[in-house]
Amino acid sequence: MTEDWPAVATAINERMTELGVNQRELAGRSRVALSIVREIVHNTVQRRRSGRTLEALSVSLGWHPRHLAAVLLGHAPPAPDAPVDLAADTVPARLAAIEDHLAEITERLDKLTANLSTLVDRQQPHDER
Q1: What is the homologous superfamily of the domain 5-128 according to CATH?
Q2: Closest Cα to residue 51, out of 31, 71, 33, 65?
Q3: Is residue 7 within 8 Å of 79, Cβ to Cβ?
Q4: To 10 degrees, the CA torsion angle through 101, 107, 108, 109?
Q5: Do you know which Gene3D superfamilies this protein is assigned to (predicted)?
Q6: What is the pLDDT of residues 9-58, one digit of tens each?
Q7: In the chain, domain spans
Q8: Is 54 strand, coil or helix?
C-alpha cells in the first residue's frame, strides 16, 4: 500500500487557502497538535499517522471524516454526507493515535529538558561549572 503524503499536504493546503484558515486555527479546530499539523502540511515527516488525526483534520476542513485517508491511499474521497464506516475504527488505528500522542509528549519533554539545562547552567556560578 503506497501512501501519498504529498497529496495529503496539497489537499490540506488548498483547503486551508480556500477557507482562509491558518495552521494554528486548524490545529485548534481539530485538536491536533500544531507540530503534527505542521509536519503534515509541509510534508516534512512521513510516518504512520493515526486515523483519528486524519479524521479530525478532515472534519475540521469540512470534509467527510475519511477524506484525507482516501487521499493518502490514492482513492476518491467520499462525499461529505456519505455514511461513516465505524468498522474502520480498529485497534491499529487506536495504537497509532497513542503513538502520535507519545511522540508529541516526547518532543515536548525534550524541549523542556533542554530549557531546564540552559537555566541550570545560567544559575550556576561560573567557577562551579
Answers
A1: lambda repressor-like DNA-binding domains (1.10.260.40)
A2: 65
A3: no
A4: 110
A5: lambda repressor-like DNA-binding domains
A6: 999 999 999 999 999 999 999 999 999 999 999 998 777 777 789 999 99
A7: 5-128
A8: helix
